[in-house]
UniProtKB/TrEMBL annotation:
InterPro entries: C2_dom, C2_domain_sf, PH-like_dom_sf, Ras_GTPase, RasGAP_CS, RasGAP_dom, Rho_GTPase_activation_prot, Znf_Btk_motif
PROSITE patterns, per database record: C2, RAS_GTPASE_ACTIV_1, RAS_GTPASE_ACTIV_2, ZF_BTK
Keywords linked to the UniProt accession: GTPase activation, Metal-binding, Repeat, Zinc, Zinc-finger
Record-annotated C2 domain positions: 1-105, 116-234
PANTHER family hit by this protein: RAS GTPASE-ACTIVATING PROTEIN 4-RELATED (PTHR10194:SF4), RAS GTPASE-ACTIVATING PROTEINS (PTHR10194)
Domain Ras-GAP: 305-515
The protein, known as: Ras GTPase-activating protein 4-like
Superkingdom: Eukaryota
A GO term, aspect molecular function: zinc ion binding
A Gene Ontology BP annotation from the UniProt entry: intracellular signal transduction
Keyword Cell cycle attached: no
Amino acid sequence: MAKRSSLSIRIVEGKNLPAKDITGSSDPYCIVKIDNEAIIRTATVWKTLSPFWGEEYEVHLPPTFHSVSFYVLDEDALSRDDVIGKVCVTRDVLTEHPKGYSGWRNLTEIDPDEEVQGEIHLQIALLGSEGARKLRCRVFEARDLARKDRNGASDPFVRVRYKGKTQESSVVKKSCYPRWNETFEFELDESATEKLCIEVWDWDLVSRNDFLGKVSIVTVQLAMSVNPWEEGWFRLRPDKSKPGVDEGNLGALQLQVRLRDESVLPGSYYQPLVQLLCQEVKAGPKQDGKFPLITLIDETTTAECRQEVAINLVKLFLGQGLAKEFLDLLFRLELDKTDEPNTLFRSNSLASKSMESFLKVAGMQYLHGVLGPTVNRVFDEKKYVELDPSKVEIKDVGCSGLHRIQTESELIQQSSQHLQSYLTDLLIAIAKSVRTCPATIRATFRQLFKRVEEHFPEDKHKNVKFIAVTSFLCLRFFSPAIMSPKLFHLREKHADARTSRTLLLLAKAIQTVGNMDAAASRAKEGWMAPLQPTLQQGISQLKEFITKLIDIEEKEEVDLLKAQTLIVKEGPLFIHKTKGKGPLLSSSFKKLYFSLTSEALSFAKTPNSKGLARAALGSLRLFLSIGWRSAGQRGHLRSPGLTCRIGTRQVTLPAVSLLKCVNELNQWLSALRKVCVNNAEMLCSYHPGVFKGDKWNCCHQKDKTGLGCDKTRHRVTLQEWNDPLDPDLEAQLIFRHLFGVMELMSRWASTRPIRAIFSAPSPISADPQNMDTPMRLFQVLQDLEDAHRAALFNTSAFADRDKNSLLELQT
């Protein structure tokens, strides 16, 4: 049974931040760290002390994580960014709020003694007989210690305290991965309640030593345990002996964080549930008087969780190759309930949410190709665009060369020309995108067009079948992406006020074209009148586009599905080459264009040139985020990057500033981790340094081919639209939801006039194939719940033993 944990993070806004610039304001942004690994960087909100971000992220991470920290910084163009404060939310706090933690948290000052990281390898043993026992502490090594010196490393040593006595180890110079292999002994007083404290410090010649973390061991528990010794890696913890820093004077951060832990069984356990759902989709809505199982799920799913259920179902059926059939079933069920064409697919039903999720999962790359050039043009030009007379601001635009201010009518006319230009470019891009639209989306729209045409055959409803397509493509896909390009990964930063208004007007225009009723828009918002000719022309273009989009033969559809390979990530990277040996070691970089698909990693000189090499995913053995490195005798630092080893070749991301590249860096890192999750030869340890002279500069080991001094981190990933499908996880999420509402489903089904079924789920001994569909579903859900309980019982004994033997020794 595999453990899967995820964090849903929403960084809402900040308030009452201190001013860090001479203008009396700040340019705040947030960095999110899982334990000590920077994962997310929000956009910068310029010149404000009350920034609004509204950014959402889904992070998959190991169940052993300890905390998530939010650092608020002020961006500076010419100097180092100022740190304003941080908020730390521990795993324990998140566990206490199963529905998610939400609220304001005061920012606190960053105390260097609390900014610790890394682990230390210890062996604690009791020696001798009763009355003359000794406590022996052997310190082997440490890894991933904080870097406290200007050279990008530390000079760590260990200080061991027990019963008022202190012993110290030797100092290991310039290393965050020191090896000591030293032993310390103390007389043990079994009646005493004192703890063994192991502290790690950075030695400094001139200034005071820097604290790197500590471990406290409860020796009484060790004396009472069966084994007289314990050995393992202990996480270094901060020093909490200092009084807390006053809160409130650094402002506050509003957050929404939810932790979800899933226990995923082997795939064979989910096959009965998956097969039952697939059979229901293949059977369609007519099932001899029985209501479809999808209807049961739809009616018992609340609005609060419908979006989540929809995307889980879409991913499940995509993995089974039945996404088109699943959506077609939803279309027909929705049409059976709709007599008024004006309300078709306008509610947040399971059909609407599922189609919306399907477009985001299957069509995001298509969206970028269609909207990207126009959205980038709006951002780059930053033109003033306003058609509403009540919102025109004369002072924003003027003709200083002519020494006069433009009139309101001139501004509106000029704005109309700009907006028409953007809209025309966008409509042309849509019209030319027939062949680039994913085959699965084309086939789904063809089914939707056909079903609506069959349900509303009258000539007066001739536009309804087109509007059904545009209600999803324009209103739920294109328009939201135009209004919020960052949320759809079209831009790295939020738009400023002027650009945001232009995007809003452009999104309104696309919505009007999608509604195919320019006259109604003119009656509602008369100031849109200057766009009427372009809107009318756009409606004709969109109809022609949809006609071509759905005009696809079955054979062509299959060929397109086979030909289209999902690109997970692409862009320029740098090949890192090492020249020379010994003290004359030097490095060089060669820029190449890389493409990562679900099958391989390939690269070429340019995006359009012939590929130079192609490596199957199975040959990828190591990828990691590089920290600050010493690049010369003067202590200059090379910025961090991303390293990927393909056989013997090493690939490195361009060196750029840590805080400003964290998103791009982690997108590559996350993508590589996901596609290589099943690689059997993935390395579990590595050397974060380089072999220089006769030793590794990170841990000073002289064995060039030996095991690495640090463990690889391959568990933290960002959820994105192009994630590889995980059928077992999707099935588990669907099971969790259905089992939670099983009683509600039973009550709803028992009230249906079509067929009376039992009022509460119970164990069933009959042949499942002869049961009613709801009864079979309830039996499958109960079997899965029993399997979870059995797996949990079998693993709990081992987990309790490990927890009691080692973790409880550390306080």
